[in-house]
Write a structure and sequence with these properties.
It is built from 4 helices and 45 strands. By secondary structure, the chain is mainly beta. A hairpin with a 7-residue loop joins β11 and β12.
């Protein structure tokens, strides 16, 4: 009888059928393992000179990451069951209330298309205004005006580790307590070649030295490799979560378990051997929990206890959320991991359909939304806010915003689904309170629709209400790189500016033409935006208007010293611009021109004869924005 009851409860739990809406704490039997990893190398970014930006992409796959249609069957079957809900149990929640939208202070071009899909945008900004922006497969450093200080590939960044495997899935964060950066990326995709690369900056200047570590993505020497990192930093530790995927299987069909790596951050900054604790076998009622998202701090870093969120990411409709807790630091022998299953008292979520791009009569173009996993979360005043992909009541791609109150005592969760005339994907969230204890949040989403090119938007949340979406940047074309259903990017990122409450910086995906001449391609790129709470006054001299320079292209690229370089662009507002050339160390090489640029299509031409062979950045700057474009002289 006991076995029958256990099987019945497991069926209810993992089929997405609701039990009473209260926390149900499971007795967990997970395993822990202490692993000490020596520092393997250091790297000084400003000393990186030769960088080939290598990238291997298998172009014959029907969808990147899909080995066979059978491997993709579970997720596609769930998407096929999606249809508009006549009962409207997934409302587009309270958007367009009297709450004002976020303010976009400025934006500029971020990491460019490098032949890799998807973008995988992530960003961090220090208290002093140094920006680190990463994507597959580059790491760029900017100042707050959009000037490129340094660009390196993930391969060059980690070259001193001796790993020849391709690098992907980069993440980056800023630690306000230590005034340092942490960057993470993965290398390799089979059980013999799988590593997580962890880098700690030695100072608050990301162009300087970093301490490099590599941890084995197959810590149990089985037939799995590690995929999809999520990171968060607390007062004492860095948390890294990963998914173990079976060899020769996709992430959909090959999932085996999720890991939590608990890492002493102080040893990483010092360059000492890295003390880590690996949590594995993380299961609820015998079923491994999938895609675990660490919860970052709101107005301050968290610790010594840390929370995590997970959900049922392949369900069509469910109200189930998993709340995990590690009670103390890795050096505390009494620290425990607990898991609670929560059921929403209001709202449900489900796997989202792929999102439409503008479509012709001959080609239906879509962007992949993957599953409904939790992508980002923070905690403030004993309340966790988290986001992920979800289906809307209209059967479209939207964003889930969840709120768990009374986290430490009697947690209760509500779920809100965000959507409007646009379809949303890959949301991220940052604390936006003006003072500690506020519940304000800035939510970044990538957007698209059958009439709107892919871009990104921001939504402001406060006290149960949501603003209308503020379009941060509208794409200039659909994306058409490898398949009718394109990769959209597995994540975006918005990070608060810790010493400026209510402000944040975001990195999102947008569609743009890449290349020039006969090599033009409707591809994708990164747009970096500074955004802030509508309750903050506008900075002096800043007019929050839409970007005016777009569709910028350079020809020829690469150029020779005997060939003039032509830069074409569209200008949406007649105003004065400065045209300057910078080297890859961020120094001005040439102050070319200051002149008024007319509205419409323009061409700017200059000779490259005085330039030595190398990589340069052309900056076009007004008093409202900076647009940059990299070019090569041979």
């Amino acid at each position: 009888m006991k076995g029958i009851l256990t099987k019945f409860l497991m069926f209810l739990i993992f089929a997405g059928i609701s039990l009473p809406s209260m926390a149900q704490t499971a007795v967990t039997e997970h395993q822990t393992k202490i692993i000490v990893t020596p520092r393997q190398a250091t790297v000084n970014l400003m000393q990186i000179k030769d960088d080939y930006f290598p990238k291997l992409q298998y172009m014959e796959m029907p969808r990147p990451g899909i080995v066979t249609e059978e491997d993709n069957a579970e997720m596609q079957a769930a998407k096929a069951r999606i249809h508009p809900d006549p009962d409207a149990t997934l409302p587009e929640y309270k958007q367009g209330s009297t709450l004002k939208s976020p303010v976009r202070v400025r934006d500029f071009e971020g990491n460019g298309y490098d032949g890799g899909v998807p973008d995988d945008n992530h960003i961090a900004i220090s208290d002093s205004g140094r920006i680190v922006s990463v994507m597959n497969s580059s790491l760029n450093i900017y100042d707050t005006m959009g000037n490129v200080v340094k660009t390196v590939s993930l391969d060059a960044f980690s070259q001193s580790l001796g790993l020849t495997e391709g690098k992907y899935d980069p993440k980056v964060l800023y630690d306000p307590d230590m005034d340092r950066f942490i960057a993470v990326c993965l290398a390799g995709q089979d059980d013999q070649h799988t590593f997580a690369i962890i880098a700690f900056s030695q100072t608050n200047n990301p162009t300087g030295k970093w301490n490099l570590y590599k941890i084995n993505g197959n810590p149990f020497k089985d037939t799995t490799w590690s995929d999809f990192p999520i990171i968060a930093v607390g007062k004492n530790e860095l948390f890294l979560t990963l998914n173990a995927v079976q060899d020769n299987k996709t992430w959909q069909a090959g999932f085996r378990q999720s890991y939590i790596w608990q890492i002493d951050k102080t040893s990483g900054y010092k360059g000492d051997s890295l003390l880590t604790k690996l949590h594995s076998g993380i299961a609820y009622n015998g079923v491994n929990i999938r895609n675990i998202c660490p919860v970052k701090g709101g107005s301050d870093l968290v610790g010594p206890q840390t929370y995590f969120i997970s959900d049922k990411d392949f369900s069509n409709k469910t109200d189930s959320i998993f709340l995990l807790n590690i009670s103390s630091t890795l050096s505390d022998p009494n620290s425990k991991l607990s898991i609670s299953l929560l059921h929403s008292i209001s709202g449900i979520y489900g796997i989202a359909p792929d999102a439409f791009q503008p479509t012709s009569t001959k080609v239906v173009r879509k962007l992949q939304t993957n599953d409904a996993r939790v992508l980002d979360a923070f905690i403030e005043n004993n309340t966790i806010q988290f986001v992920g992909n979800s289906v809307t009541a209209a059967g479209k791609a939207g964003a889930m915003h969840g709120i768990i109150t009374n986290v430490s005592s009697s947690p209760s969760v509500t779920l809100h689904i965000l959507g409007d005339t646009l379809e949303y994907g890959y949301p991220s969230i940052a604390y936006a309170g003006i003072k500690a204890g506020d519940d304000d949040a800035l939510i970044l989403v990538d957007h698209t629709s059958d009439t709107t090119y892919p871009g990104n938007s921001a939504i402001f949340y406060k006290s149960g209400s949501y603003s209308s979406a503020k379009r941060l940047f509208n794409g200039k074309t659909f994306t058409d790189i490898s398949a009718p259903v394109e990769r959209w990017g597995d994540y975006s990122e918005v990070q608060r500016k810790y010493n400026q409450p209510g402000k944040a910086w975001a990195a999102g995906y947008y569609g743009r033409i890449v290349g020039s001449g006969l090599n033009k391609l409707p591809g994708n790129a990164t747009r970096i935006s500074e955004i802030q709470s509508p309750f903050l006054p506008l900075p002096l001299g800043i007019n929050p208007v839409q970007a005016t320079i777009n569709n910028m292209s350079v020809y020829p690229d690469p150029a020779t010293v005997y060939t003039p370089l032509s830069v074409t662009f569209n200008n949406e507002l007649e105003q004065y611009y400065s045209f300057r050339i910078y080297d890859m160390q961020g120094k001005i090489v040439a102050d070319l021109l200051d002149d008024k640029v007319k509205e419409g299509k323009n061409m700017f031409t200059f000779s490259t004869y005085p330039l030595k062979p190398g990589v340069y950045t052309l900056s076009i700057k007004s008093d409202k924005e900076v647009v940059s474009k990299k070019f090569v002289v041979e």
